[in-house]
Automatic annotation (TrEMBL):
Provenance organism: Vanderwaltozyma polyspora (strain ATCC 22028 / DSM 70294 / BCRC 21397 / CBS 2163 / NBRC 10782 / NRRL Y-8283 / UCD 57-17) (Kluyveromyces polysporus)
Matching InterPro entries: Chap_CCT_epsi (IPR012718), Chaperone_TCP-1 (IPR017998), Chaperonin_TCP-1_CS (IPR002194), Cpn60/GroEL/TCP-1 (IPR002423), GroEL-like_apical_dom_sf (IPR027409), GROEL-like_equatorial_sf (IPR027413), TCP-1-like_intermed_sf (IPR027410), TCP-1_chaperonin (IPR053374)
Pfam families given in the database record: Cpn60_TCP1
GO molecular function: ATP binding; ATP hydrolysis activity; ATP-dependent protein folding chaperone; unfolded protein binding
Name of the featured protein: T-complex protein 1 subunit epsilon
Self-association and partners: Heterooligomeric complex of about 850 to 900 kDa that forms two stacked rings, 12 to 16 nm in diameter.
Length: 549
């Protein structure tokens, strides 16, 4: 049921769907709520489905308080819909699980799960017991995954081709996203970021080491990967230099990373400080001056060129820092401080007297980024080449909506690359993987004699929904496309024939390099089957589903 969604067109004539599902709780308590759970799942899926693939529609989501999100990401769409129905909520969970574990394929998993539910409903109507269906689906899923595993392609992680392979896979995952015009740039950013921080021995990537920063203004094309950290700050005094590079004879800029304030400790008098004479006032001033000088001496003696401080400091301290040629940054958050420490291999120092040269961080350059039309400034702490241990993906875009969606797209792409670092096997996209599994499962159905054959056939048909949806979203006839692709796969005994969504003139996904990580596809099948089993096991859902049909 799409009654809450309307199709509109933007000024370029590109269609998109506006979903006004939020703030509609009351309506859902009415007639709508009487529909069965599985039908509710279907209605959610019908909205999600239209986003699948490179020709999928972007959604504009409007929250009750008017916030607008533009997205193509299944998990995001679902998370912003206010749903009353329990099964529909499970779909949200499903998409989130896929997002948490794999990071990509969040739309596909919902399409598959709802197709399985549809198939299950038909089998229940034929009189097959839900548990039998669930068991049959499990068996079919096992077979499908085993078959798919046999069709994977692999480029060894140490081979020369690996980087190119990552790049192409990253690019595919961006194909359906808002950044598709800049996908070379974003794909490269994802690959470079992952390769730089990856742990080669453990074949894993800590996403903590990849920071994502966004700033409205400029265009997506101004986005860049920074080998280091970017801070939403500027130097503490306007006369401090806009750029710090290594001083004569040194190879690095040295940073003191401090969690102690530039503030003199309160004089140790038991009584309230009473300043009644000029003399006393000067005494206090001198005391403060001395303390500041002492602190700055500690910093200087350790050999620091720049001070990064978690706290603020007053004008006096600021002026002394300037006088002593120590550019400084104040009010740096705890997490950012940690990032700086990692990126510069420095230590976070809690007391001035603990400062020493070996605890200082090192970098090649610190410079202020200015943004043309605004007064905004940011500071970049940069390493040379690829020597930083953390990186920052810095996203620019003309509006907050664009920046946010670009971040989500880049995140998906980072996930694809990370997944391939973990397991470099790929399967083919455009529904090719689903078609080859569907063929294998339906062949097995033909061999089965018992009741399982129905579940296998149903499972095979649910898999077909993915290529059919891709075809439909690309303006192709879903049934004709599917049967043509299927017979081609069978005739040529290949597994990489899929839907030519972008009209490139070939259905050879290998040639188009439309790939998905095997572990992502496997996870989709496992999660969708699991969800279906869960729902089939809850008896009253199915019974009420039938009653209210
Ligand atoms: P998800 O959130 O599930 O990743 P997407 O909207 O990103 O959904 O669509 C992914 C699907 O689109 C996958 O099945 C993928 O193989 C397919 N796909 C991506 N790019 C292409 C392409 N250029 N041609 C055909 N299919 C593609």
């Amino acid at each position: 049921d799409m009654s809450n969604a309307i199709v509109a067109q933007d000024e370029m004539g590109r269609p998109f769907i506006i979903v006004r599902d939020q703030g509609n709780k009351k309506r859902q308590h009415g007639i709508e709520a009487k529909k069965s759970h599985i039908l509710a799942a279907r209605s959610v899926a019908s909205i999600i489905k239209t986003s699948l693939g490179p020709r999928g529609l972007d959604k504009i989501l409007i929250s009750p308080d008017g916030d607008i999100t533009i997205t193509n990401d299944g998990a995001t769409i679902l998370s912003q819909m206010e749903l009353d129905n329990e099964v529909a909520k499970l779909l949200v969970q499903l998409s989130k699980s896929q997002d948490d574990e794999i990071g990509d394929g969040t739309t596909g998993v919902v399409v598959l799960a709802s197709a399985l539910l549809d198939q299950a409903l038909e089998l229940i109507e034929k009189g097959i017991h839900p548990i039998k269906i669930a068991n049959g689906f499990d068996e079919a899923a096992k077979l499908a995954i085993a078959h798919l595993e046999g069709t994977t392609d692999d480029v060894a992680i140490d081979s020369d081709l690996f980087n190119d392979y990552l790049f192409k896979a990253s690019k595919t995952s961006l194909g359906s996203k808002i950044v598709s015009k800049n996908h070379d740039k974003f794909a490269k950013m994802a690959v470079d970021a992952v390769l730089q921080v990856m742990d080669k021995n453990r074949k894993d990537v800590h996403f903590d080491l990849i920071k994502m920063e966004g700033r409205v203004g400029g265009s997506l094309d101004d986005s860049q990967l920074i080998n280091g950290v970017i801070l939403d700050k500027d130097f503490s005094h306007p006369q401090m230099p806009k750029e710090v590079t290594p001083k004569d004879g040194k190879s690095d800029v040295k940073l003191a990373i401090l969690t102690c304030p530039f503030e003199p400790p309160k004089p140790k008098t038991k009584h309230k400080l009473d300043i009644s004479t000029v003399e006393e006032y000067e005494k206090l001033q001198n005391y403060e001056q001395d303390k500041f000088k002492e602190m700055i001496n500690y910093v200087k003696e350790a050999g620091a060129d720049v001070v990064i401080c978690q706290w603020g400091f007053d004008d006096e301290a600021n002026h002394l820092l300037l006088q002593n040629d120590l550019p400084a940054v104040r009010w740096v958050g705890g997490q950012e401080l940690e990032h700086i420490a990692i990126a510069t291999s420095g230590r976070i120092v809690p007391r001035f007297q603990d400062l020493s040269n070996d605890k200082l961080g090192s970098c090649k350059r610190i410079h202020e980024l200015e943004f043309g039309t605004t007064k905004d400034k940011m500071l970049v702490i940069e390493q040379e080449g690829t020597s930083s241990k953390t990186v920052t993906c810095f996203i620019r875009g003309s509006s907050k909506m664009i920046v946010d969606e670009a971040k989500r797209a880049l995140h998906d792409s980072l996930c694809v690359v990370r997944n391939l670092v973990r397991d470099s096997r790929v399967v083919y996209g455009g529904g090719a993987a689903e078609i080859t599994m569907s063929i294998a499962v339906s062949e097995e159905a033909d061999r089965q004699k018992g009741i399982d054959q129905y579940a296998f056939r149903a499972f095979s048909q649910a898999l077909d929904t993915v290529p059919m949806t891709l075809a439909e979203n690309s303006g192709l006839d879903p049934i004709a496309t599917l049967s043509a692709l299927k017979s081609k796969q069978i005739k040529e005994k290949t597994s990489f024939i899929g839907v030519d969504c972008l009209g490139k003139g070939t259905s050879d996904m290998k040639e188009l390099f439309v790939v998905d990580p095997f572990i992502g596809k496997k996870q989709q099948i496992l999660l969708a089957t699991q969800l279906c089993r869960m729902i089939l096991k809850i008896d009253n859902v199915i019974i009420s589903g039938k009653d209210e049909y």
